[in-house]
Amino acid sequence: MKNIVIGSGPAGRLGSIELGKLGEEVTLIEKNHIAGTCLNEGCMVVCALTDITKFIDYNNKFNSYGFIKSQMDVSYEKIVEKIIETQEMLRELNQMENESFGNEIIYGEASIEDGAVKVNNESFEYDNLLIATGARPFIPDIKGKEFGLTNKDILKLDEVPEKLNIVGGGIIACEIANIYSTLGSEVNIIARSTFLKGISENTRRYVLEKIIPDVNIYENTDVTEAFKDKILTDKNEELEGTPFFATGRTPNSEIAEGFVELNPNKTIKVNEMMKTNVDNVYAAGDVTGGYLLTPVARMEGITAARNMAGYSNKVSYNCIPQTLSLNMEVSFVENEKSTCPDEDKATIGIPGIAGPHSFWNILSMDTGYTEVEFDKKNNKINRINEISPSSTSDVAYLSYLMRMDYELDDYSEFLEIHPSTDSNYKIIKNMWL
Fold first, then answer.
1. Would you say 179 and 171 are in contact if contact means Cβ atoms under 8 Å apart?
2. In this predicted structure, what is the pLDDT of residue 317?
3. Alpha-carbon span 326 to 58, nearest angstrom
4. Rounded-to-integer distance, Cα 95 and Cα 326, Å
5. 414: pLDDT confidence band, cut at 50, 70 and 90?
6. pTM higher than 0.85
7. What burial class does residue 282 get, using C-beta atoms within 10 Å of its C-beta: 0-12 exposed, 13-18 middle, 19+ buried?
8. DSSP string of 244-290, one letter each residue
9. What pLDDT, in 10s, does the model give residues 7-16?
10. What is the pLDDT of residue 407?
11. Which residue, 245, 246, 283, is CA-closest to 128?
12. Residue 390: what pLDDT?
């Protein structure tokens, strides 16, 4: 059967690969660059820059300890040049990978007309269609919004801004603040409500006091007007600095308007099989809303592909691990399906553990912090917030335990690789079991 996939971000790219693996005929259509926002404008760019800021952070620490004496001369222009060079290499590899499964890749802007997909003045019939067109930065409708930067502009900057006003109070705002504060910018965060309201208060406090202490936080504050070099707030404050909007994402669903059913927020409405209300038409990734995360988009794309190929598959969103890519990673997960009453909950909070990349943090007493909520009655984990260099792997392991609904006793046979998952050993084997 002929399958067309529109969009080559994590959902479309993995969906097309899965279809190819299953022996299906696939045409993948991409408007710009293969691998979508993640590689070209989003999390990979943030991670690349954060690798630099971690190095700067450790260099400053080692200088303060006295066993390394060095002065750093950081070239933002050269960093951008090398990020772009790496992106080009990865695009080539991603294309080769997709084509290795027999998939055809076409570059151009697609439209859907009369039951066919049109691109570059050609019309393509399909048996199944997957719409994976992603999302773009949402910019609030305020006067002067055209002066604001977004994540799409990071690699267009010639130098590190002297002053930066980040509008937004979520994960992206925090990551951008960490990067440019470390690189030398004077950074303000302007949040409409509470900054990082989605994580525990203890974790939030640690981030503010230990990881981004030099960033100025303005909570419960709206921006009323933006200029090229300043913003105005609803509290009549004038804050100097380049505006940067980290105010969420809006779906690229225009291609589907009038074709499939949309949700009130303009995301494409799908069921647990990633199917729309139109037969043989599926959607996956950020264009469907929900968790705007690369691993979730991959999961949705693969789920859609399996259903397109006739293999019934459903997606599950419980216990999705998340992280903030900072100079020290902050990772968290919660079991949204837990019905544990308050009287059966037990919360354990401990200082960070001297696991991988933490040894030299002990002298400065900033090894991180871990907080775990347990269901005492059923012997299971409800929630984890962890700040440590190894938190991304620790929480990923533990979220699997939660997602599979294992009891903590089932974890007793897990054998960690020292010191990569020492936190797992400390939290589960030593503290609880």
1. no
2. 94
3. 13
4. 30
5. confident
6. yes
7. buried
8. EE---EEE--GGGTTTS-B-TTSPBP--TTSB-SSTTEEE-GGGG-S
9. 999 999 999 9
10. 83
11. 283
12. 85
What are 328-352's pLDDT values in tens digits? 999 999 998 889 999 999 888 887 7
CA dist., res. 16 & res. 6, Å (int)? 10
Residue 3's pLDDT is: 98
Cis before residue 321, ω within 30 degrees of 0? no
Which residues are 189's β-sheet partners? Answer: 166, 217
List of residues 6+ apart from 192 with CB closer than 8 A: 169, 220, 221, 222
Tokens 């997909």, residue located:
117
Distance from C-alpha of 320 to C-alpha of 371, rounded to nearest angstrom: 17
**Interatomic CA distance for residues 57 and 24, integer angstroms:** 48
Q: What is the mean pLDDT of residues 256-262?
A: 97
Q: What is the DSSP string of 53-118?
A: HHHHHHHHHHHHHTS--------HHHHHHHHHHHHHHHHHHHHHHHHTTT-EEEES--EEETTEEE
Using a 10 angstrom Cβ sphere, with 0-12 exposed, 13-18 middle and 19 or more buried, the burial of residue 70 is: exposed
At 7, give phi and psi (nearest 5°): 110, 130
**Residue bearing tokens 């989003």:** 42
Q: Report the DSSP beta bridge partners of residue 238.
A: 232
Query: What pLDDT is stored for residue 416 in this prediction?
Result: 72
| Beta strands at 186-190 and 216-218: parallel, antiparallel or unpaired | parallel
* Residue pointed to by tokens 């802007």: 109
- In angstroms, rounded to a whole number, what is the distance separating the alpha carbons of residues 20 and 133? 19
Q: Report the amino acid identity of residue 335.
A: N
Whole-number Å distance between alpha carbons of 298 and 18: 10
Instruction: Transcribe 410-433 into DSSP letters.
Output: GGTT----TTTTHHHIIIIIITT-
Determine how many CB atoms are found less than 10 A away from the CB of residue 100: 10
Note whether 110 and 119 are within 8 A (CB): yes
Q: Which of 214, 4, 218, 220 is nearest to 111 (CA)?
A: 4
Write the burial class of residue 3 (CB in 10 Å: 0-12 exposed, 13-18 middle, 19+ buried). Answer: buried
Q: Which two tokens stand for residue 369?
A: 């912090």
User: Could you give the percent of the chain with pLDDT greater than 90?
Assistant: 79
Q: Which residues pair with 164 in a beta bridge?
A: 187, 242
Alpha-carbon gap, residue 397 to 355, rounded angstroms: 15
Structure tokens belonging to residue 339 = 């019905």
